[in-house]
Amino acid sequence: MTREDLFAALDLTPEPSGPIDLDDDQPQGPAGPPPSPTALDLDAWSLRRGAEVLYEETALARVLAPEPLTDTNEHLERVAADCLAAAFEPAPILAENCADEIRGRYFRQLFETEAYQALHSETRLDPLASELAAGHFAQGYAALIEQEEQQEPQDGPQGTPGQPQGDPARQELKRDLRALSAASKALSQATQDVDDLRDAQRSLGGEGAGEGGRLDPAGLKARFDRIRNSRTLRKIIENAGRYRRLAQAKQRQKQRHGQDDVVGVELGNDLARLLPAELAALGDEDLELDALRRYLERGLMQRDYRGIEHVAQGPIVVVVDESGSMSGDPIETAKAFALAMAWIARHQRRWICLVGFSCGTEGTFLAMPPGKWDQTALLDWLEHFYSGGTTMDVPLVTLPQKWAELGCPAGETDVIQITDALVRIPDAMRETFLTWKASTKAKYYTLVLDSDDAGDLRAISDRVWCLPNLSIEQDAIQELMSL
Fold this sequence. Notes:
Shape: extended
Helix content: 40-55%
Radius of gyration: 34 Å
Distance between the termini: 101 Å
CATH architecture of the largest domain: 3-Layer(aba) Sandwich
Structural class: alpha/beta
CATH topology of the largest domain: Rossmann fold
CATH superfamily of the largest domain: von Willebrand factor, type A domain
CATH class of the largest domain: Alpha Beta
Number of strands: 8
Number of helices: 18
Largest sheet: 6 strands, mixed
């Protein structure tokens, strides 16, 4: 049955079909994807997480909503979701058509920078680091909004004074540059915060401190907030980062240059480590000149040795003078040095005790066995300061008395004392301490700051250094970091 037979059977008359009118007055749909409410392509989880963070006590919430929100705000929730996802998601993707032109431009410029790529490698899938970075991303976006509002009268259709009227390409370039400037500033601040977080993690026994694993996010956040709100702790952690990097270099060098085992062959000109074939070449008339040339160019084959890292070494004790004369930079660098020595102890799985003293027989004692660190107690010890006079009762009397109570294991003990005082030690106290020192196989190292005279401390110390400060360039600091 044809089409005409069907219409005839139904007693219908088909309407004549004409050409299709392509120029009708029906509105045409917009080209491309529909506008996206977010600058990033986000799933439901990311959107929900952005909303949750906005109503929590976070840096991101304080930036976007200085006053606590009483009702839901979809716009701010989406901004929060964009900022958090840009830092947290492993592979964030920009939306093709963001409804908020300024936000879309801002995140596009952010993603195109090398600084963002470097920062993102540290923040992805890390709740605390991404939250810190997201707060700065939101600050940059808020600053860009304010700047665009100020520039709007100048960038209107009339153009800026002295500029060609109606130059859209020039105005587009200006907007891109403003977005890039805001993004760059946000990235710089975010990178600094994340670097500080990593230093805090490593210094306080978190990730990268030798035990593996991360601190719990809630606990780390509380400690990091405490550090940020304390000038003393900030300076100590900042200085400790430099000491720790020096310690890492010294520990690697010590292990590399050991000669416990041969692990391969390398190029060099150390005659004591040359292979027999190279030594023979030096004595051969035909090969001598070539061997001498390679000797000058450090190109001879020699044995590559590695030292064996000894895991259960003796305890470390760091005794810090907290008298009033140590206030300011001296106590901050001394506590930072103590924290770096704690890092060495953790790295080497050694027991460590941190001691603070001033006058009298009372002191602060923090004993930390391998793998059992109390980060809150560590921060308390770092921040504590007596600000009194100086006597040697705590290092020479109280410490030996509390030795068994502290749980110090047997082994050769390295005791490091930092003070700026010229002290006198009674004969009885000195003899009693020396007897204890011999029984515990302890080595006593003394750092005397801002003085050329160690006084009676020389009589009880195995090594004494009189230093102007605790700079990492000092030979004494580098030697102690090699323990």
